Fold this protein.
Amino acid sequence: MYRRDSDELQAARAQLVSYSARLLADGLAVGSAGNMSVRAGGIVAITPSGIGYDDMRPDDVCVVALDGTQVDGLETPSSETPMHLAIYAATSAAAVVHTHSPEVVALSAARSELPAIHYAITGLGGPVRVAPYVRFGSAGLAAAAVAALDGRRAVILRNHGAVTYGRDLAQAYDRALLLEWLARTYRLALSYGEPAILSAAELDEVTAETRRRRYGERRGPRP
Ligand SMILES: [Zn+2]
């Protein structure tokens, strides 16, 4: 049991380092802004506070218990550790990505929701809510994020950034990229005037069709 946990944790450390480098390359973060975590059984591997993503090594990754107690790592865990832990407690998340990506931050200051101008938003559970502003690193921010995540896999934090989660770090990260793309696309659409928004029924139809196709793929012969 211990051995398996240890392998899982090592993989989580390596993943967090490689995705940290991607955060910069993909324009989702500058310096050491934002943070990511992976849940491995009863513990959470999380990026440290204040270390530039370019300089991060697997040993810098911090390990905390689900109650927030640090169990490994010489560095200080991310200041948003309470928010990550609250999301693990409230959802099925196995990985959480928090960014300060520019399109999302811009939208967060001007809108209360990212509406559905493209059907890909069904991948996030539908229109993405903007949670009220609460200071970084606070229990209040963690609670606001969890409340606005209800039925969603993404939340935008007013005047701050965004959080996405997934069944693994790859999925959580892809959702962060999708969210940033959707925010950018919405801003571009606004430049033409008032954009058409997909209705709840249209989004439900997309979700049903996506499920049907996935189900068919799993049952059908492999190409
Ligand atoms: Zn932040």
In short: Residues 2-25 form the longest helix (24 residues).
